[in-house]
Amino acid sequence: MNLTARDVAGMIDLSCVRTTSRKSDIEEMVAAARRYHFGHVSVLQCFIPYTRQLLADSPQVLVVGNVSFPSGSDTTTVKVFQAREMAAAGCDEIDMVMNIGKLRSGELKEVEEDVSAVVESAHPLPVKVIIEIMALTQPEVEQACNICMQSGAAFVKTGTGWANRGTTLEDVRLVKAIVGDRIQIKASGGIRGLEDLAAMYRVGARRFGINLLSGIEIVERCLTLEAGLEI
User: Fold this and answer.
1) What is the CATH number of the domain that holds 63?
2) Residue 162, pLDDT score
3) Distance between CA atoms of residues 20 and 11, nearest Å
C-alpha cells in the first residue's frame, strides 16, 4: 500500500499549543494547513474562536480543542465545561488529558467517570484521550487504554508533547497490543520525520500530533516520492 502526500497530511494534527504561542503563530499554522492540506489544527482554548475565524473559508481543515491541557488535573466539572465551550466555539474534535495522578494512585473508577463525562458532554464530537504514556508503567498503560475504550473515546493519544521524552515506536506497539482494533491510536510528541510517521503507521497509529516545522518537512519529503509513501 502507498500513501500520497495528501493522505499523510490528512492524518496530521498540526499543533500550536505552547504557553508562548501567539496569534501570529496560529496564522502561520493555518496558512500551512491550507497550502499542504493538513487535516487538523490543534490550539489552546483561548485561540479557538480566532482559529475558526481564520478557517471560515476552509471547512476541510478541522479544529481540535484541548481539555485540561497539559496537566489533566482539573476537576470533572471544569473539564465538562471546557468541552462544551469548545464545541460551542466551533471545535470539530476534542483532545482531553487523562488525570494521570489519579490513575497512578489507583483511583481507576474516578478516572473512568472523568473521561466518560467529557466524552458524553462533547458528543457527537470525537474525543481523543491523552494518557501521557511516557509517565506510565506497562500495567498503568493497560489500565489507561481500558478506560479509554470503556468510556467511548475515539482515540488513545500517547502524549501531550510536553513530557521529558517523545513517543516511541515501542509506545505505539504497546498500545496497539492492548487495544487491537477496538479504538484508534494517535501518536503525539517527538515525531520529527517521515520515517518516524511511517514506522508508527505500520504498527497501528492513524493520527499524528506534530509541530508545524516537522509537519511541513514530512509532507514535503513525501512529495518527493513518485510512488508515494510505501507502507
Assistant:
1) 3.20.20.70
2) 86
3) 25
- Integer-rounded Cα Rg, in Å, for the chain is 17
> CA angle, corner 9, sides to 23 and 2, nearest 5?
170
* pLDDT tens by residue, 172-225: 999 999 999 999 999 999 899 999 999 999 999 999 999 999 999 999 999 999
**Amino acid residing at 65:** G
C-alpha distance across the termini of the chain, in Å: 5
C-alpha cell belonging to residue 139: 500495567
Q: Which of 73, 152, 149 is nearest to 118 (CA)?
A: 152
* pLDDT tens digits for range 26-67: 999 999 999 999 999 999 999 999 999 999 999 999 999 999
Cβ atoms of 25 and 231 closer than 8 Å: no
DSSP string, the chain: -EE-HHHHHHTEEEEE--TT--HHHHHHHHHHHHHHT-SEEEE-GGGHHHHHHHTTT-TTSEEEEEETTTT--S-HHHHHHHHHHHHHHT-SEEEEE--HHHHHTT-HHHHHHHHHHHHHHHTTS-EEEE--GGG--HHHHHHHHHHHHHTT-SEEE---S-SSS---HHHHHHHHHHHTTSSEEEEESS--SHHHHHHHHHTT--EEEEEHHHHHHHHHHHHT-TT-EE-
What domain range includes position 64?
Answer: 2-230
| 95 DSSP β-pair partners | 66, 128
Counting the structural domains of the chain, the total is: 1
Q: Which residues are catalytic?
A: 95, 157, 186
